[in-house]
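EI: anyone free to look at a 507-residue chain?
SC: sure, send it
EI:
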Amino acid sequence: MNYLLGVDLGTSGTKTVLFDEDGNVIASKTIEYPLYQEKNGWAEQEPEDWWNAVVQGVQAVLQASGVDVADIKGIGLSGQMHGLVMLDENGEVLRRSIIWCDQRTGEEVEDMNRMLGAEKIIQITANPAVTGFTAAKILWVKKHEPELYAKCAHILLPKDYIRYKLTGEYATEVSDASGMQLMDVAKRTWSDEILEGLGIEKRLLGKMYESQDVTGEVHQEAAALTGLAAGTIVVGGAGDNPAAAIGTGIVSQGKAFTTIGTSAVVYAVSDRMALDPKGRVHTLCASVPGKWTVMSCTQAAGLSLQWLRNHVCTPEMAEAAEKGVDPYEIMTAEAARVPIGSEKLIYLPYLMGERSPHPDPDCRGVFFGLSAMHERPHLIRSVMEGISFSQWECVEVFREMGVPIEDMMICGGGGRSPFWRQMLADMYGCSVSTVQSDQGGALGAAILAGVGAGIYSDLETACDALVRKKDSSEPNMAANGAYAKYFTLYKELYRTLFQSFKDLKNI
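SC: here you go
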């Protein structure tokens, strides 16, 4: 039997999963690590924490599975997108990684628009200049830490740092790299015009590959640390959401998925490169050769519910501990007792600023309509509805762009909740389905490795064989109409508060 290893480098932890060639999970291990937020709007992590999590995760799955490492035919990498990893000429990390949700780069975005022109940035990179993407982070370090920037010899994305530690290769691939804002997305290559305009040397960037291409082999030092066989191939892999798309079978036009984790994403595949000139959603290269994606990102989705759990829902956490269940199960059951609209309580999920459909680092979370009659269950349902309203607003943008959505899958922690799944189906007005395997990005990365190793002929064939639907929720159009009344007000609230968010920042 042949085996494949999928490594999914997330924000809260790295999941390492060993699959057989039929897509069955043989062993899995997740290692967590901290997030550092020294200032309001900042978010950083230590790359060495990621590498240690990979080493420990690989060791654990090899020990648990007992497989012959010679039978592991390939490794695929998936990871949080847009993070900045800077290495010196010896390959040593120069500073903590500024990760995807960091919002410090508002001035650098303005610099980018001044240096290149907003229209040219969209024309070439397929997206407006935004705080979350890597280019603005590079400019921030260049401006605020010039002595450190002068030592920089290599710029990598988070998962590509793991590739370097495994293989010694400085490389990346199109799906993740197109989220750096340094690519000509239509041509699937680095953009000389963007790099020269921003004063970033191309030599700092990794070699570009397609996601299924072989980018290197595990070297002796990494083999000794992890227990893997030296010479095992490592393919390009994908950003976390492109990898999750493959893991849920989203490899052709008309298919889409919603994932609700720390952030929330709606992701659809398109046969053509579709642009939103308003910059409300992102256009990136797909992990499928010759295809593109449209992707939204709500910065604080599951993070909003986690914040509520940690700071408000102490009784629910105590009850969950007593019953031996996940606190979110208790919270969701309480939310289900509250009617649609949370009895006139609306939540805006902007705890970390926002990317989609409002590229605005200054907006912040809001409870609107809070009254003395509201209790914790109202707050819980309101947060879940606010997160879902954000996804609905993004789906509206997709359809406006002419990107069809005929089949919606769901993954991430939110996908495990039948209540939340039904809420999204009611809002979207289409069926929402889970897949039998909930491994998402790790499975997608492993499938890419399988194509690179020649186990599967192509991604479409692999997904047809390995990805199966499990549960489906059909839309209730009466509920859709009830939600729509609140949705209209939800959308209006951002426009109403836009200037107030700016004023708050400047106090």
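EI: The longest helix spans residues 477-506.
SC: 👍
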